[in-house]
Amino acid sequence: MRRKKNIIIIIGWMLLLPFFHHLWAQTEKLFRAHKLYLEKKFEWAKSAIDSAALHNETSNLSETHTVRAFIYYELYKKTEKNLIESKLRDTIVKSIMRSESLNPDSVNHNNNIKLLNNIAINYFNMANNVFQEQKNDELSEKLYIKFKELMKSVNPQFNSKEKDIEFYNALGSHYASEFNSQIAESNTINKKAGEKGKIYLTKVLEIDPDNDQANLNLGLMYYSEAVQMIKSLDAATDLLQLDIVQENTSKLARKAENFVLKVYNKNNSNKLAVEALYYIYRALCEKEKYMEFDKKCAQLGIQVNK
Questions:
Q1: Cα dihedral 67, 70, 74, 75 sign
Q2: Is 147 found in the same domain as 180?
Q3: How far is Cα 32 from Cα 39, in angstroms, rounded to an integer?
Q4: Is residue 27 part of a domain?
Q5: What does pTM read for this prediction?
Q6: Are residues 34 and 154 in the same domain?
Q7: Are 171 and 143 in contact (CB under 8 A)?
């Protein structure tokens, strides 16, 4: 009886041998991929880890997907780091998310977070580079949003306030400068720059209503718009049209005043705010106020056109 039982056990193990051999073959590919990664043979490592990532047993190991992410990251750094669209980058992120869904141990979790943080920072750098080199604000913002999404994955408590202010101020300042320069140089309105400048600077003020840079830029945009209207008047302008232009000019100058005063009230020695208010009150024909700011300009060493 005992002999019969032992025979049954042996037969059972023999039946399981193909399964264990198959499982070991797949697990061996994971170990081999990691070894090749350490040897910096990344292309070979990629082939091994891709096979392990697709197999039923090893695909359910968090280690498989963490190792895969690191192997792909090395290839990504060499060939696709500066590409807007990168299949390698997409695979890295998917691998990390898959690893995290499988409850990794602390070592693998920390490695996942480290790598995801690197990818997020790369998105932020690309967002800045795209705007600086191409002036493509829509693509730049798309990349910036990717950065924020990944940072939230790294740290659910991530607060993007400071980065949002930095990013949207950069975009808004560029378009504000473009808008103001065109009026100063040719007395024409760049409608597209004006709209974009106001949109991005308003985003900053929604986050930080007292932001100096955004308030000054918006104030100067409205002042420039008022100046453009005044310069467009000529001797042929009829009285009715003149009244309408003067009314609209006054409204724009008041908007400019409201934004710039926020900055001045915080710091009455801010040279940009003092100079801007001198010109704003002069456009409003408020002699007492613009004379007051004329004196302030002189005290601060600001030269103004009279």
A1: positive
A2: no
A3: 10
A4: yes
A5: 0.83
A6: yes
A7: no
